[in-house]
Design brief:
The chain is about 0% helix and about 55% strand. By secondary structure, the protein is mostly beta strands. The mean pLDDT is about 95.
């Protein structure tokens, strides 16, 4: 099994920055990628970005491209999501999810991010 713990959420003003962390433990050798999702109030959970666990390759949806980045260094089994130039529409509960080589997905508990206008 893989355990994920997210941290770093909070309240930020529009235009500000936050860094989210996703710390993985357990069978981390089985992880193939880490995905970030977010769920705004009253809306569905949606994919935001991803990083290949071994390759370090990253992907971002258009709405965050150029503002959010995932550094490629996950040597400490922690993946970060740097969020810059934040907008009120970025307000959501953010989740990280680990996808394993066997196709299993593990989820973190989520962390609240609120962007005030």
């Amino acid at each position: 099994q893989v355990q994920l713990v997210e941290s770093g959420g909070g309240l930020v003003q529009a235009g500000g920055s936050l860094r989210l962390s996703c710390a993985a433990s357990g069978r981390t050798f089985s992880i193939s990628g880490i995905n970030w999702f977010r769920q705004p109030p009253g809306a569905e959970r949606k994919f935001v970005s991803a990083i290949g666990w071994r390759s370090g390759g990253t992907y971002y949806v258009d709405s965050v491209k150029g503002r959010f980045t995932i550094p490629p260094d996950n040597a400490k089994n922690t993946v970060y999501l740097h969020m810059n130039s934040m907008k009120p529409e970025d307000t959501a509960v953010y989740y990280c999810a680990a996808e394993t080589d066997g196709g299993t997905n593990y989820w973190g508990q989520g962390t609240q991010v609120t962007v005030s206008s």
